[in-house]
Amino acid sequence: MPTRFHDQQHTPNVASKRVPLRKAAVLFIATVCLCLCALLYLQLEQSRRHDLSQAQVASSNLTRAMAQQAEDTFMKADLVLTSLVDWIQVDGFGPSLRPRLQKTFARRVQALDQLHGILLFDQKGQWVVNSFESLPRGPGVADREYFKFHQQNVSSMAHIGPAIRSRENGEWIIPVSKRVNDRNGQFQGVLLAGIKMSYFDQFFKSFNIDDNGSMFVALTDGTLLARRPFVESQIGTSLARSEIFQKLLPQAPSGNAMFTSLVDGVVRLFGYRQLEAYPLVVSAASSRDSILAGWYDTAFRSSVIVALVMLGVGLFGWVFIRQVRVGERVEADLRKAQQALELIATHDSLTGLGNRRLFERALDIEFGRGARQHTSLSLIMLDIDYFKCYNDTYGHVVGDHCLAEVARAVKRCCHRKADLAVRYGGEEFAVLLPDTDIHGAMTIAEQIRRSVMDKNISHTGSPMGYVTVSLGCYSFVPTGQDNMDVFVQRADAALYQAKHSGRNRSAVLSMEGGVEALMRSDR
Questions:
Q1: Where would I find the H helices in 347-475?
Q2: Alpha helices in 92-161, H assignment, sequence order
Q3: What is the pLDDT confidence band of residue 210, given thresholds at 50, 70 and 90?
Q4: CATH 3.40.50.1000: does it fit domain 356-521?
Q5: Taking the mean position of all CA atoms in its chain, how far away is CA 468?
Q6: 67-72: long-range contacts at Cβ-Cβ below 8 A with a sequence spacing of 24 or more?
Q7: How far is 387 from 205, CA to CA, in rounded Å?
Q8: Spatial distance between the Cα atoms of 445 and 436, rounded to a whole number of angstroms
Q9: What is the three-class DSSP state of 509?
Q10: Distance of alpha carbon 108 from alpha carbon 85, whole angstroms
Q11: What b/e string do you get for 420-442 counting C-beta neighbours within 10 Å, with b at 16 or more?
């Protein structure tokens, strides 16, 4: 549109400069929610690590206490066996000495709560002396693991074997045994002290662990000796494939780790320690769920609080964005209304061309631009010939239609965006041509004149028989000191000369040597 260029000079596009408030609000709300989630995660992760760290310290302290207690238990039995073996290897265990040995064995058992009994076996595995008041003879213990061990090993060290059932009363015991030699170092038998499994059960109960926790004592090969909770079918089973024996013990004699129990499939934090004096491993474990029970409760409450805050922020954001959207719609409607008002204020409603207000605004802009850039500015003033007669003949409604047709012809001849066509008043029109000299203005004027003629609008009151226009052109280079009224008057003077010379023609008013020269262009 020819008039759009001049309209935009005074009505900048507010929408293009608008801050995207809705997007900023959405981004802000999303950022707040993400920050809340990140802070919640960091707080919960820090709390979880603290709880696990505290549990690791407690587990290490517990296993250290277990190891010390277990070592003391087996060491006391070892010392009893050592003193008895030394005595027996010096004095023997002939029939005359057996009553005395039996009383000594009984006193030792009474002195130590952990001992189930003490038995001396000959080289064939039959008991010779024991701490019990009455013990029937059985098939012997030649088939027992500890007896076979001492038969095959000359070591005088105490041997701890897998847990067995006592043949005296069926109670579970852990055998601690030593080899008995004669004066020549030949195998003469085995001295056995049985440690009660119930002693370890009471020992385990003295520690405070959760219901899903566990404690155990095992041989270094993974054979389970005692465990809490006590499950009889698990006694003697192998833990060699568990993570403690497979990965942890080869790397360090003590430590802790979280993994799934091989025995019952519960995830626990295991603390373990290998005894220095005996081939034993102790372990205490707390279930992960019990360790993190408080953390789970805190995490739930914190998550609910953060979720409620996020919900509140989300609802507020939704209301805010909704209000922004309503505001944007209202603003868009206001912009449309403003544009409509601007159009009404600057354009002619009948022809759709600009009006004198827009023309004067454009003149002010183009005068300044022409002065800065030293370029020509041209103006065409045109008038419909014999239009009063046309209105009298055909009526004002048809006259309005004629004005609209002439306006369309004028508009089609304004090819550049900078060209401005306006209805100057009544049947008079003006065309402002920036950066156009007099020759260009004359060319456009002739195009307009022929375009109107080509419409063949019937006009019986005109000598031509159809509607024609007369045009006056004027061009100059603005200097910054020019008068807009003089500029219009000179173009209007050229139009007057065109009408005075017979109408339906274009006239040019130029200033040469202070004399006005009139040039005409007939059909």
A1: 356-373, 387-394, 396-412, 438-454
A2: 98-111, 145-152
A3: confident
A4: no
A5: 74
A6: 67/273, 67/275, 67/282, 69/203, 70/217, 70/275, 70/278, 70/280, 70/282, 71/275, 71/276, 71/277, 71/278, 71/280
A7: 120
A8: 12
A9: strand
A10: 13
A11: bbbbbeebbbbbbbbbbebeebb
Give the distance between the most distant pair of CA atoms in the chain.
170
Residue range 4-40, pLDDT digits in tens: 444 444 444 444 445 577 788 888 888 999 999 999 9
Please report, for residues 39, 265, 373, 380, 410, the alpha-carbon distance to residue 438 in angstroms, rounded to integers and kept in the order given. 74, 101, 17, 10, 18
Q: What is the pLDDT of residues 74-132, one digit of tens each?
A: 999 999 999 999 888 888 888 888 889 889 989 998 998 889 899 999 989 898 888 88
Catalytic residue ranges: 427
DSSP of 298-336: HHHHHHHHHHHHHHHHHHHHHHHHHHHHHHHHHHHHHHH
47-291 under CATH 2.40.170.20, yes or no: no
Give the amino acid at 193: A
Concatenate the DSSP letters of all residues of 432-454 into one string: EEET--HHHHHHHHHHHHHHHHH
Contact assessment for residue 347 and residue 3, using Cβ atoms and an 8 Å cutoff: yes
**What is the three-state SS of 197-264?**
HHHHHHHHHCCCCCCCCEEEEEECCCEEEEEECCCHHHCCCECCCCHHHHHHCCCCCEEEEEEECCCC
- C-alpha to C-alpha distance for 456 and 446, rounded to whole angstroms: 16
**Cα dist. 304→28, 47, 298, 301, 501 in Å?**
22, 17, 10, 5, 93
% helix / strand / coil in the chain, to the nearest 5? 50, 25, 30
What residues have CB less than 8 Å from 315, skipping those under 6 apart? none
Element (DSSP H or E) covering residue 383: strand 377-384
Over residues 213-239, the pLDDT tens digits come to 888 999 999 999 998 888 888 888 898
Residue 514 has what DSSP assignment?
T
- Answering whether pTM is above 0.85, one says no
Residue 372 makes CB contacts below 8 A (sequence gap 6+) with: none
Contacts 24+ apart (CB under 8 A), 154-157: 154/179, 154/181, 154/185, 155/179, 156/85
**Residue 68 tokens, joined:** 């010390």
| Sheet with 280-287, side-by-side order of all strands | 224-228, 214-219, 280-287, 267-274, 254-260
Using the predicted structure, report yes or no on whether residue 378 has a pLDDT greater than 60. Answer: yes
Residue 28 or residue 470, greater confidence: 470
All structural domains of the chain with their residue ranges: 47-291, 356-521
**473, 508 Cβ separation under 8 angstroms:** yes
Provide mean pLDDT across the span 247-267. 88
Cβ–Cβ < 8 Å for 489, 482: no
Question: Which residues share a beta bridge with 42?
Answer: none
Contact indicator for 452, 409 with CB cutoff of 8 Å: yes
Q: What is the C-alpha to C-alpha distance for residues 432 and 442, in angstroms, rounded to an integer?
A: 12
For 336, the token pair is: 């449309």
136 compared with 341, residue with greater pLDDT: 341
